[in-house]
């Protein structure tokens, strides 16, 4: 199921996704039914099937239009003076700030990347999902490689791989635990200082010319917070999602 190519189709697609997101917020991912989207949007089921093959297609698209990969490039453009250390922790801190504001984002993240769901989506949506997951991975790894080139970080290629995976796995575990609310505070404390401490410990295990500090991360989180409060909703669209995909494809060529 291909993404809309015309402006009117993109507007209708966004309307359907808005309804689906509201249904998930009210009923949960499991309980809401595919046909409810058409009813909530005031259209026929035939119109719904024009844009989505299944509930799984909808869930993947909702994740794609909410993903931080669509927002981080805009933040970087608006903050061109970020140093390489700030860029290195940006994907992690950005995701934390998004999750704080939109719990549904984390639900969509967990569901969309679960193979039991995404394998049931249309092949076109799956390919976009793959590219977006890899794009986020590159946003974690590329600043570390750039830091080595600039002499800001001493690390081998293998160490860069290790650090990238450590950051990615920490992020996945922390956000999942934050959303589940199952852990008692004695096992999991969801506050920024604890997160900064974990990130700095992971980062500063390697040789940075200047250490990754709590103060730097706190300041960057503040910038991200202002950005999200200002632009939330302007970025979450089919157009933005498609534009990010095109940029990533061009960069690979």
Strand fraction: under 5%
* Share of helical residues: over 70%
- Biggest sheet layout: 2 strands, antiparallel
Number of strands: 2
The averaged pLDDT comes out at: 83
**Helix and strand run:** HHHHHHHHHEHHEHH
Low-confidence blocks of residues: 185-189, 246-253
Shape: elongated
Q: What is the terminal-to-terminal distance?
A: 24 Å
Query: How many helix segments?
Result: 13
- The helix-and-strand class reads mainly alpha
Strand order of the largest sheet: 1-2
What is the radius of gyration computed over CA atoms, rounded to a whole number of angstroms? 19 Å
Instruction: Give the domain tally.
Output: 2
Keywords:
mainly alpha, elongated, 13 helices, Arc Repressor Mutant, subunit A, 2 domains, 253 residues, 2 strands
Write the layout of secondary structure elements.
Layout: H1 7-27, H2 34-41, H3 45-51, H4 55-66, H5 72-78, H6 84-101, H7 103-112, H8 115-118, H9 123-149, E1 153-154, H10 157-180, H11 192-204, E2 207-208, H12 214-231, H13 238-252
Antiparallel strand pairs: 1-2
Helix pairs in contact: 1-2, 4-7, 4-9, 6-7, 6-9, 6-10, 6-12, 9-10, 10-11
How would you describe this structure to a colleague?
The protein is mainly α and 253 residues long. It has 2 domains: 7-61, Arc Repressor Mutant, subunit A (Orthogonal Bundle); 66-252, no CATH class. Helices cover 73% and strands 2% of the residues. The protein has helices at residues 7-27, 34-41, 45-51, 55-66, 72-78, 84-101, 103-112, 115-118, 123-149, 157-180, 192-204, 214-231, 238-252; strands spanning 153-154, 207-208. The longest helix is centred in the middle third of the chain and has 27 residues, at 123-149. It is elongated, with a radius of gyration of 19 Å. The two termini are 24 Å apart. The relative contact order is 0.13.
């Amino acid at each position: 199921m291909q993404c809309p190519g015309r402006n009117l189709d993109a507007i209708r697609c966004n309307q359907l996704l808005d309804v689906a997101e509201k249904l998930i917020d009210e009923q949960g991912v499991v309980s809401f039914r595919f046909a409810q989207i058409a009813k909530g949007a005031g259209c026929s089921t035939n119109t719904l099937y024009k844009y989505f093959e299944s509930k799984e297609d909808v869930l993947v698209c909702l994740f794609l239009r909410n993903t931080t990969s669509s927002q981080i490039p805009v933040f970087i453009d608006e903050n061109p003076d970020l140093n390489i250390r700030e860029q290195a922790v940006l994907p992690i801190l950005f995701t934390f700030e998004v999750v704080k504001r939109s719990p549904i984002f984390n639900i969509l993240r967990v569901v969309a990347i679960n193979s039991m769901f995404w394998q049931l989506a249309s092949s076109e949506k799956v390919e976009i999902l793959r590219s977006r997951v890899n794009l986020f991975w590159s946003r974690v790894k590329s600043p570390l490689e750039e830091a080595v080139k600039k002499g800001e970080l001493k690390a081998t290629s293998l160490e860069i791989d290790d650090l990238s995976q450590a950051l990615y796995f920490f992020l996945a575990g922390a956000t999942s635990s934050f959303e589940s609310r199952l852990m008692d505070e004695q096992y999991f404390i969801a506050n920024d200082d604890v997160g900064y401490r974990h990130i700095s410990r992971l980062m500063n295990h390697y040789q940075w010319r200047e250490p990754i500090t709590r103060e730097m991360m706190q300041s960057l989180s503040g910038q991200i917070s202002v950005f999200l409060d200002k632009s939330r909703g302007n970025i979450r669209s089919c157009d933005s999602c498609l534009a990010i995909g095109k940029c990533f494809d061009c960069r690979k060529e």
